[in-house]
Design brief:
The chain is an alpha+beta fold. The chain contains 4 helices and 2 strands. Helix 1 packs across helix 3. The longest helix has 23 residues.
Length: 127
């Protein structure tokens, strides 16, 4: 798929890390992207199964050890060590089994979840 619209986003660090606080950090956007992708995946699959969802509440937390990010400790990874996703699907009409199925569908079919949990290769090409 190709888009003809350009989207812009400002990223920044908090003031405590010499930023100006004008936007989220890249790690915060990564967590938000995971939440959005899980939500979209669940909604599209629920719709295709005629399962009515009243709301989805999702909160993603992650741990980044700054000793790894800053290079202070070479034994610590610079990225997020773990994500914790608190996901709540609310529906007045869906059965408990349908809701549980939607949780599993989110994990199985979310492209962001797959990318983050399956060691995706990244190739950097210099110019």
């Amino acid at each position: 798929m190709e888009r003809n619209t350009e989207y812009k986003m400002d990223y920044d660090f908090p003031i405590q890390f010499s930023g100006e606080g004008r936007g989220p950090t890249v790690c915060e956007v990564c967590r938000g992207s995971l939440a959005a992708c899980l939500t979209q995946t669940i909604v599209i699959h629920a719709t295709s199964r005629d399962i009515q969802i009243d709301s989805i509440n999702i909160d993603v937390e992650g741990d980044v050890n700054l000793r790894g990010f800053t290079g202070i400790d070479s034994d610590v990874r610079p990225g997020t060590q773990q994500f914790r996703v608190n996901l709540k699907i609310n529906s007045n009409t869906a059965s408990k089994e349908q809701i549980n199925e939607l949780y599993e569908i989110g994990k199985k079919f979310s492209p962001a979840f797959d990318t983050l949990t399956n060691g995706t290769s990244v190739v950097i090409v210099g110019s």
